[in-house]
Amino acid sequence: MRFRFIEDRRADYPVQTMCRVLGVSPAGYYAWRARPESPRAAANRELLEDIKRVHRDSHGRYGSPRIHVELKAQGHHASRGRIERQMRDHGVRAISVGPRRCRTTDSGHGFPIAPNLLGRNFAAAMRNQVWLADITYVWTGQGWLYLAAIMDLYSRRIVGWAMDEHLRAELPLAALRMAIKGQKPGAGLIHHSDRGIQYASTDYRQALQAAGFRPSMSRRADCYDNAPMESFFHTLKTELIHHRQYATRNEAERDIFSYIEGFYNHHRRHSAIGYISPVEMELKSA
């Protein structure tokens, strides 16, 4: 194992230094290096190359569960445990960074509050049966950029989104209009959100009524009542936003658009839907 460590890092550190620190002789290392590679070692080396490729293609966003699923889909038969060991031994990890906070929900208003029709039952039998809506924030050099998004609960696809520098009701309304235009849902769809002023406003309630949707709202200050949307925002920030420093809001908008449409909807393997992408899940309901 120590010789393998030296071999993997010989381009970064002097061999003599690594041998001294690890308590092995340079002669022993070079003798080990001269021996023919065993079939197991060759298989592990090839597996590690494939792990790094999938990790790189996901821009560092995938950990061992999704890398295991992705490699299995490509015809590899390595177990998840073996993949985890290779990643741990070679320092391959999914990216993760802590957040910057901003308050987006103002529920201290006099508008009507819809009942909670979901009750944390986050399951849907088909697409366009239940939509979840929420708002999050992104820091830029020009100040906050706010993102309103709508998720189809069945497929976990983000079917509508809008971004702007304000938190007025026009922001989530733009996301709602995009979702309706793209999905063309029928009447009776449940639209679930928090009880913030944007979603309780007269304009938003009228838009839901015109579409024939059934409004549903979380309990006060309970993020778990809209857990799948909270999970999406956490994923977006962990895999993208916390690794960027945006000089402008336009720069952030382009990056978020690319993440949602270029990666998340079409390629990201989602644990809640059997490690397939939202678009693949959506096709099952076609």
From TrEMBL:
SUPFAM superfamilies (alphabetical): Ribonuclease H-like
Protein name (record): Transposase
Any one GO biological process: DNA integration
Molecular function (Gene Ontology), one example: nucleic acid binding
Span of domain Integrase catalytic: 111-286
InterPro entries per the UniProt record, alphabetical: HTH-like_dom, Integrase_cat-core, RNaseH-like_sf, RNaseH_sf, Transpos_IS3, Transposase_IS3/IS150/IS904
Top-level division of the source organism's lineage: Bacteria
One Pfam family it belongs to: rve_2
Gene3D superfamilies referenced in this protein's UniProt entry, alphabetically: Ribonuclease H-like superfamily/Ribonuclease H
Organism listed in the record: Bradyrhizobium nanningense
